[in-house]
Design goal:
Blueprint: E1 4-7, E2 10-13, E3 18-24, E4 34-39, E5 46-51, E6 58-60, E7 68-73, E8 78-83, E9 92-98, E10 111-112, E11 116-121
Length: 122
């Protein structure tokens, strides 16, 4: 079992930055592909970014490419999402997820965090 806990969400003005963290329990953290997803009110959960087990490969949704950076520290069992140049349309609950080999597909992840709210004001 893996437990995931997100932190770092909050309220920020458009153009600002936030860094989300996802802390994981369990000794097999480094063996999992990891991802970030988000869900805005009335919308489906959507893929944001993902990173391979070793951190050598990263994948991004077109909407965040060039603004968001995903990273992981396997020694700390933690994944990060650095979000720059935030836009009001980035407002959503952000979830981290673990254990998938189809990184962009939410249904393929085995473990999920509880989510953290990100609100970007215009």
């Amino acid at each position: 079992q893996v437990q995931l806990v997100e932190s770092g969400g909050g309220l920020v003005q458009a153009g600002g930055s936030l860094r989300l963290s996802c802390a994981a329990s369990g000794r097999t953290f480094s063996s999992y592909g990891l991802g970030w997803f988000r869900q805005a009110p009335g919308k489906e959960r959507e893929f944001v970014a993902a990173i391979s087990q070793g951190g050598t490969a990263a994948y991004y949704a077109d909407s965040v490419k060039g603004r968001f950076t995903i990273s992981r520290d396997n020694a700390k069992n933690t994944m990060y999402l650095q979000m720059n140049r935030l836009k009001p349309e980035d407002t959503a609950v952000y979830y981290c997820a673990a254990d998938s080999n189809r990184y962009t597909v939410a249904l393929t992840y085995s473990y999920w965090g509880q989510g953290t709210q990100v609100t970007v004001s215009s």
